[in-house]
Amino acid sequence: xxxxxxxxxxxxxxxxxxxxxxxxxxxxxxxxxxxxxxxxxxxxxxxxxxxxxxxxxxxxxxxxxxxxxxxxxxxxxxxxxxxxxxxxxxxxxxxxxxxxxxxxxxxxxxxxxxxxxxxxxxxxxxxxxxxxxxxxxxxxxxxxxxxxxxxxxxxxxxxxxxxxxxxxxxxxxxxxxxxxxxxxxxxxxxxxxxxxxxxxxxxxxxxxxxxxxxxxxxxxxxxxxxxxxxxxxxxxxxxxxxxxxxxxxxxxxxxxxxxxxxxxxxxxxxxxxxxxxxxxxxxxxxxxxxxxxxxxxxxxxxxxxxxxxxxxxxxxxxxxxxxxxxxxxxxxxxxxxxxxxxxxxxxxxxxxxxxxx
Length: 357
Prior knowledge:
Blueprint: H1 34-48, H2 53-73, H3 82-93, H4 104-120, H5 130-143, H6 155-163, H7 169-184, H8 188-192, E1 194-195, E2 206-210, E3 214-221, E4 224-231, H9 240-251, E5 260-262, E6 269-273, H10 276-290, H11 298-304, H12 308-317, H13 322-329, H14 334-339, H15 351-354
Parallel strand pairs: 1-2
Antiparallel strand pairs: 2-3, 3-4, 5-6
Helix pairs in contact: 2-4, 3-5, 6-10, 7-9, 7-12, 10-11
């Protein structure tokens, strides 16, 4: 076992100011062995799988920003100091330099990233400590804004968007992405993480089964495994299952990732899985090409729509009992589902008239 494997709970700071993170260590008095080394690597692999790659990247950026801030202030990032973290979030909300002030939601995300990083080093962060909680409460009171929601892609919108796509290989792929994401109320990460079969790849986030009545998606979601049923549409032109079948057939994909990159000439499907950013870019480009919200400048139109617009579109357009939408989106509560329902059911129950006014 290398000397770096045996470390204390308080992980040392390197000369360059970086914090070496290795939460899986052996006690100093325990001799290493090949079997134990293998188990440590296995444990590290499971730990990395506990959060998505995007979340881990965000946490790494949060930690890098905090440690740089500490270095600039002449303070040590370890062990965690509630007083210094209170000053840190105050600086994020009202920076003394040229850096822009962060939104409350971003500051809370930064705190979550710091808490995660401290926990990996065996040093828990008490976010309820008065030096943190009181300052955060003041930041919320002074700077909090209503949440900014992305525009929902409604039925006519999605039809106009897929109509802009060609019928070449890339067009077939992107049409399947849009229709499947819309009908399934899927996150963009869930779309691109799909495999053809169970256990096809190590980075799989789920798999598909195409049945007579539609497609059954088994997804490894944040709250555990869940199934999403996507029924066949009323016509082949708008059916997400037919679009998926067409893509798989002409791309000759029968194993591994469902949605992959294509060759430069657009005639061959490659092996590399698509990045979830492709879904966001696809939505924005199709919104522009379809002329959706043409009353707004192009910059504003692009900013209105994102990957979440597909989920919000299903929640807002599907005229069914709310519990079915909640199940499709994988929400634990109906209240969360209602946040996705743009303009739906507003004033359907008029309590003013019900109260006799």
